[in-house]
Each structure stands twice: as C-alpha cells, then as structure tokens.
Design the sequence.
C-alpha cells in the first residue's frame, strides 16, 4: 500500500518479528523526487511509535508528530528517508524497556518491561538491513539517526549506546528513564560512549500524566526534568563533547505529540549538521 502525499511518498511494509512470530508495520517516508534522482543516496532517521508520526487520525493522542509537515515546511533541512516503526500497543512498555521495571509502586509479582533488547535487535538486524537493501540509503553510522519520545526515548538512548557503531544521531524527547533508572545508570556507566555521536535532548516543565502516577513515586514533573539533566551529565562524563549535545528545557510544555512536533525541525537540523 503506497500513499502519496504531495511530493512525499509513504510506503508501507510488514516485517517479521521472529521473537513474537508476527509482522510489524513499518512505514518509509521517501523524500521529494526520490524516484527521479536515481543517483542520490539519503540519510535515514528511524522513529519509534510509528502510529503517532504521520497522521493525527491514527495517533494515540489524536495529534501526530506531523513528520510530513515538518519536512515540507522546512526545506532547509537536508533530504532524508524517515522510517516509522509501529509500537506494540498494549505491549509497548515491555518492548521499549530493556530491563524489568522494579522501581515502581506496582506489586512485586507484577512483571513489566524487559523486552527492549529483543525489540532493539529487531530494529537493527531486520528493519535497518531491509531498508538499506531496498532503498538508496547512506547506511553508515554518521547518516543514521534514531528518534523517540517518553519510553521511545528510553529505547533510543539504550540503542544509541548498544549500537553506537551504527547510530550516529539521537533525538531523545521527554526521556522517561525514571522507570528503570538504576539499571540504565549502571549500564551507561559501564559502557564506552561514542564522542562523535550527536544527541538532541528535550523536556518540558509540565511532563507526566495519569499513567505515570501508577508507576512513579514522587513528583512526576521534576522526575522528567531530572532524567534529562542526568542523561546530559552522563553523556558529558562519557566524553561526548558538549558541542555534540543539545539540551532544551521548555517552560510549560507537556508530555505529548504537540510539544514534540513543535521541536522536531530543530532536532532534525541539529542531527543533520554533520551529514555530507
């Protein structure tokens, strides 16, 4: 199923997830004149929560990231291929957390989280190779970026470390690392970070929602701010130069696609600065 949208073309794939024995929808947004410019290869930006990226009528909150509009309305941003990978809906929290969730008010026998390593492996060993094989991509690390919000930010931050040899840019929106902070802190401290990686981080001062209240002790708004600040410090401690990190704290912005869509162009500009 191919869906034209002005000069951008959105293609739909169904890629097999072996660990679940099911197919996952993956959509590929191709840049203007992709079919005409046959000699051109393009950077690739992978984004999680694919249902929330392109059309508001299928987005969880009723408002999408407006990726198509962001590209159309900002012609200064270099041409790229955007790959949107759908989330697992009810299983989303499990797939976007690499570790079991143990730091919450949930009952101790209530198992949540821990499938993130398998999901990350699916993205990097199934999705990325398929995209590189079937589309004209610049497949190297410097031209490969990953963007996610909330738990999608968690899995992006993890994959940026785990697959640092393949991912050169990260967009981390509204990081929810409070949910597995001890495990992540231990992990990032034990790994060698990539000083060439570019990382865009943003958070609002009014983050948190009712779903978070079931999972978090203490002040939700402060927890989101603390997560982003701590991650910023962890990157610097890991020898990522300050010029390679962009940290934004936006007053009064909430935990939703409206805020993330507003700043997506800035994120894409920052991640693309070193693209050739």
Sequence:
């Amino acid at each position: 199923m191919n869906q034209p949208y002005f000069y951008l073309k959105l293609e739909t794939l169904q890629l097999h997830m072996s660990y679940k024995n099911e197919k996952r929808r993956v959509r590929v947004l191709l840049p203007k004149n992709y079919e005409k410019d046959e000699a051109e290869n393009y950077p690739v930006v992978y984004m999680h929560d694919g249902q929330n990226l392109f059309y508001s009528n299928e987005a969880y909150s009723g408002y999408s990231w407006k990726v198509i509009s962001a590209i159309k309305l900002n012609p200064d941003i270099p041409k790229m291929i955007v790959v949107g990978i759908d989330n697992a809906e009810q299983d989303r929290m499990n797939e976007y957390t690499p570790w079991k969730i143990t730091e919450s008010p949930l009952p101790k026998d209530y198992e949540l989280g821990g499938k993130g390593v398998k999901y990350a492996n699916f993205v990097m060993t199934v999705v990325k190779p398929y995209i590189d094989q079937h589309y004209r991509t610049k497949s190297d690390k410097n031209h490969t970026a990953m963007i996610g919000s909330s738990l999608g930010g968690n899995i992006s931050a993890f994959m940026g470390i785990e697959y640092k040899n393949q991912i050169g840019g990260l967009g981390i929106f509204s990081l929810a690392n409070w949910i597995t902070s001890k495990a992540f802190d231990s992990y990032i401290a034990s790994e060698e970070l990539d000083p060439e990686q570019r990382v865009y981080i943003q958070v609002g001062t009014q983050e948190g929602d009712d779903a978070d209240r079931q999972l978090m002790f203490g002040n939700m708004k402060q927890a989101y701010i603390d997560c982003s600040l701590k991650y910023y410090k962890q990157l610097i401690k890991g020898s990522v130069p300050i010029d390679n990190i962009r940290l934004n704290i936006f007053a009064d912005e909430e935990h939703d696609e409206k805020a993330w869509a507003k700043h997506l162009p800035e994120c894409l500009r920052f991640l693309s600065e070193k693209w050739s």
